[in-house]
């Protein structure tokens, strides 16, 4: 049991002086004052733990490698950037490699490791993308949406897939989309050239989010709004954004945020295996990438190949680059993600009974401490 306090604790979408009692992995009491003998963080901000639902790797390792140790290293690192929960995201690979990757992630999840961020589930981003908008992935490994194959993926994951990416225009009669939605999974549409009209039907059929808005999709046109037009105009859709100022221009970050508001914007890192590595040239199993001084990976032909941004930088950038309100930025990294995944009964808010997942940072957006289920993850706590 521990009591922690600050003059700025994020409760009901505002910062107030408060003391939190953390016990048995939960927030058990909230006092709207600073209690004596509590562990004080002064004027540092205490917010719900950051959640990254779209991330692929770290420090040379990728979720699709099929290596459990890669997941463990990544899981242990993430609290350093304030992340308390994440979905390892597999990408477009051959079926055997995806099965191997899912089994590896499953094995780590079932270890129930307390030395790092939670893994509430897996994001199956590929292989159901479009050939027209494949992103940085091999077109020859793209596969047509198939329920039987998806069932094999789900079995390999031990039932831990909770989010699925689909280019719905390739899904005949939206069969896989409907199947996943009926199973309670969150369906994200991306790497897609879907028309606006079909996308709106996909929403009716159960799609709930759009993968990294404006990246790897058809362009917005005033007579053919396509997927970005649906992402911006449909109130029922959550829309991801990569807030590094490179994947989308800062003014477009602002447009996406203004259209989605404080309740439907979702910020992601879309981090690749090159996150945490120095700028330079790297070769992996499936690609050759140059990491620039701007922290962004690029293929030899100049295409973007993932980000190296952190979640806490993303929260800051939504405000400084995107000129969005603080409430929009914080919600985009916390409660919106929890609601999208239907995990908001225990994640994403500072409320009694919720998981004691907390991110603490100073005015320079440096992480001072991260609590995961009430356990401090930074052994050498930083001072303000």
From TrEMBL:
Residues 46-374 form the Amidohydrolase-related domain. GO terms for biological process: N-acetylglucosamine catabolic process. Binds 1 divalent metal cation per subunit. The lineage of its organism: Bacteria, Bacillati, Bacillota, Erysipelotrichia, Erysipelotrichales. It holds the Pfam family Amidohydro_1. The active site is at 270 (proton donor/acceptor). InterPro entries: Amidohydro-rel, GlcNAc_6-P_deAcase, Metal-dep_hydrolase_composite, Metal_Hydrolase. Its cofactor is a divalent metal cation. One of its GO terms (molecular function) is N-acetylglucosamine-6-phosphate deacetylase activity. It is an enzyme of class 3 (hydrolase). The gene is nagA. This is N-acetylglucosamine-6-phosphate deacetylase. Zn(2+) binds at residue 212.
């Amino acid at each position: 049991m521990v009591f922690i306090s600050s003059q700025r604790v994020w409760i009901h979408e505002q910062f107030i002086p408060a003391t939190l009692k953390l016990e048995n992995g939960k927030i058990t009491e909230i006092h709207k004052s600073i209690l004596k003998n509590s562990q004080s963080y002064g004027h540092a901000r205490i917010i719900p733990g950051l959640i990254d639902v779209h991330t692929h790797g770290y420090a040379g390792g990728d979720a699709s490698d099929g290596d459990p140790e890669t997941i463990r290293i990544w899981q242990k690192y993430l609290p350093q950037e304030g992340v308390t929960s994440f979905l390892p995201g597999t990408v477009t690979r051959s079926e055997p490699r995806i099965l191997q990757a899912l089994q590896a992630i499953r094995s780590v999840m079932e270890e129930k490791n307390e030395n790092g961020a939670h893994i509430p589930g897996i994001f199956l981003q590929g292989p159901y993308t479009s050939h027209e908008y494949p992103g940085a992935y091999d077109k020859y490994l793209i596969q047509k949406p198939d329920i039987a194959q998806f069932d094999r993926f789900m079995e390999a994951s031990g039932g831990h897939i909770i989010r699925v990416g689909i280019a719905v225009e390739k899904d005949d009669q939206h069969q896989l989309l409907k199947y996943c939605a009926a199973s309670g999974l969150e369906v994200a549409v991306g790497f897609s050239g879907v028309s606006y009209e079909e996308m709106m039907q996909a929403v009716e059929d159960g799609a709930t989010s759009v993968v990294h808005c404006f990246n790897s999709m058809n362009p917005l046109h005033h007579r053919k709004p396509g997927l970005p037009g649906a992402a911006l105009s449909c109130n029922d859709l959550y829309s991801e954004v990569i807030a590094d100022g490179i994947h989308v221009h800062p003014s477009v970050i602002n447009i996406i945020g203004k259209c989605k508001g404080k309740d439907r914007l979702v910020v992601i890192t879309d981090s690749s295996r090159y996150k945490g590595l120095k700028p330079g040239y790297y070769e992996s199993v499936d690609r050759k990438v140059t990491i620039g001084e701007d922290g962004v990976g690029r293929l030899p032909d100049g295409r973007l190949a993932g980000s190296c941004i952190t979640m806490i930088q993303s929260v800051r950038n939504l405000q400084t680059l995107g000129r969005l309100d603080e409430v929009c930025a914080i919600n985009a990294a916390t409660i919106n993600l929890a609601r999208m995944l239907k995990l908001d009964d225990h994640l994403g808010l500072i409320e009694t009974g919720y998981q004691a997942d907390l991110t603490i940072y100073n005015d320079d957006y440096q992480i001072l401490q991260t609590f995961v289920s009430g356990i401090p993850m930074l052994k050498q706590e930083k001072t303000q």
